[in-house]
């Protein structure tokens, strides 16, 4: 499982989508994407067809971690501007900064083990620490829902220790 990430300086991105508050114990990802996917065609000025799954954590989320801690998850698409906002959609800015970018290949049920490796092995052993910005996954053309060959890019916000 050892994987060295690419370190990327992300430029700000404009996203449009839907969000929902959830926890790992009350996972509402299916509900979120089921609500978003039929409406994504209404989004104009799209930069890419890649889907963004964005996670916004409060300051205490990782300090006192518990599977019942809540966070906000977004399902969205990158846009050039916010000139048109479909009904029921919201805007989200991904703030520029450093990210550790990992490639995940496999089933969604094994994703937690992969994330555990990042937070408990790679991050503490690296010269970086978590930065308080959005975490996100990019579901591109290699993403296949619930398929062992599915691939996605995992973006973890970092800064030098």
Question: How many helix segments?
Answer: 2
Low-confidence stretches: none
Largest sheet: 9 strands, antiparallel
- Portion in helices: 10-25%
Keywords:
14% helix; single chain; 161 residues; mainly beta; Multidrug-efflux Transporter 1 Regulator Bmrr, Chain A; nine-stranded antiparallel beta sheet; globular
Account of the 3D structure:
With 161 residues, the chain is mostly beta strands. It has one domain (6-160): Regulatory factor, effector binding domain (Multidrug-efflux Transporter 1 Regulator Bmrr, Chain A, Alpha-Beta Barrel), CATH 3.20.80.10. It is 14% helix and 43% strand. It contains two helices and nine strands, in the order ββαββββαβββ. Strands 1, 2, 3, 4, 5, 6, 7, 8 and 9 form a nine-stranded antiparallel β-sheet that branches. The protein is globular, with a radius of gyration of 16 Å. The model has no long low-confidence stretch (mean pLDDT 93).
Write the layout of secondary structure elements.
Blueprint: E1 6-10, E2 13-23, H1 29-36, E3 46-56, E4 70-79, E5 90-94, E6 97-105, H2 111-125, E7 128-130, E8 135-139, E9 151-160
Antiparallel strand pairs: 1-6, 2-4, 2-5, 3-4, 3-8, 6-9, 7-9, 8-9
Compose a concise summary of this entry:
By secondary structure, this protein is mainly β.
């Amino acid at each position: 499982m050892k994987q060295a990430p690419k370190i990327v300086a992300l430029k700000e991105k404009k996203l449009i989508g839907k969000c929902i508050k959830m926890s790992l114990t009350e996972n509402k990802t299916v509900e979120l994407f089921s609500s978003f996917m039929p409406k994504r065609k209404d989004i104009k000025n799209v930069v890419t067809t890649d889907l963004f799954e964005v996670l916004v954590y409060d300051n205490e989320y990782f300090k006192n971690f518990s599977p019942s801690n809540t966070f906000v998850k977004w399902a969205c698409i990158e846009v050039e501007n916010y000139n048109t906002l479909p009904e029921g959609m919201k805007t989200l800015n991904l703030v520029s900064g450093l990210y550790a970018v990992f490639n995940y290949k496999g089933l969604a049920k094994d994703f937690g083990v992969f994330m555990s490796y990042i937070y408990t092995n790679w991050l503490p052993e690296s010269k970086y620490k978590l930065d308080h910005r959005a975490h996100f996954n990019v579901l591109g053309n290699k993403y296949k829902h619930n398929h062992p060959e599915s691939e996605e890019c995992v973006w973890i916000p970092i800064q030098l220790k």
